[in-house]
Amino acid sequence: MKHPDVARLMTELYFDDAAAKSVLLQIGFPPHMLPPFPATSFWSNAVILLEQGVVGSGEESIGDLIAAAAGTFPGNKEVQALHAKWSGVHAETGPSYMATPRYELAPEVRFPMSGRCAFVSYSHKDERYRSKLEISLAQIRREKLVTTWHDRKILPGQQWDLEIDSALERSDMVLLLASPDFLASDYAYGREMLRAIDRHKSGLTTVVPIIVRPCDWQNSPMGSLEALPGKGRPISSWANRDQAWLDVVQGLRRLISGEG
Predict the structure, then answer these.
(1) Which of 110, 135, 170 finishes a domain?
(2) Contact yes or no for 10/43 (Cβ under 8 A)
(3) φ, ψ at 178 (rounded to 5°)
């Protein structure tokens, strides 16, 4: 493989089956040649096939893939830097990814999944709040503004600590469901939250505390961050909790759209 860096980055960006296949179809990858998942082997095989010229010239199709990813993830510094570097080296080929796809696709497939990838960090004692968050985010997920990952998505046989670390590293948004149990959790606090805060300070992700129950979150490392619902009022203290979750969703929508 000539471009292992591209395969690695695509694995981090397009870890979802539908999104990965969608971006390849967008640049004209033959549908019958799409590799099987999981993501790591999928992207290794896909990049090799692109290098071999399954879509036009190998180098041009790799550039198309990078350009498409840069358009989908404008906030990802690594893919933007790679796109800028690639455009400079291969400027003569032109941005052919902007052309009409070589295959007619259904609307839901024609455009790759965009928006933010949100990692949800929580205590299992707050499972009901995590579940309610998923329900509340349904509309912005339908709009492809955000996808979410949490540890309930780990499959049997997978190493849960590796899966959690991988998901946290590829996320560009981390939602911390703050509660007394969250603050008391060595794993959620000491591993997930602290790593998320480090990545936030480095500009690699955006950390958003969501205060689900009253707790001493202001004196934790997330205390300097703007929290949801508004003014950090715990969701459990709202008379109308649907209104509280709507406040959370509206805040996240503003963040994603760049209005907040």
Answers:
(1) 110
(2) yes
(3) -80, 135
- Amino acid at the residue 116: R
pTM beyond cutoff 0.70: no
What's the burial of 190, exposed, middle or buried (CB within 10 Å: 0-12/13-18/19+)?
Answer: exposed
199 with 94, same domain?
no
What are the pLDDT digits (tens) for 110-157? 333 446 889 999 999 999 999 999 999 999 988 889 999 999 988 888
Report the chain's C-alpha Rg in angstroms: 20
Q: For the domain that residue 217 is a member of, what is the CATH number?
A: 3.40.50.10140
Query: Do 154 and 236 belong to one domain?
Result: yes
Domain co-membership, 106 together with 121: no
Lowest mean pLDDT among 143-147, 189-193, 212-216: 143-147
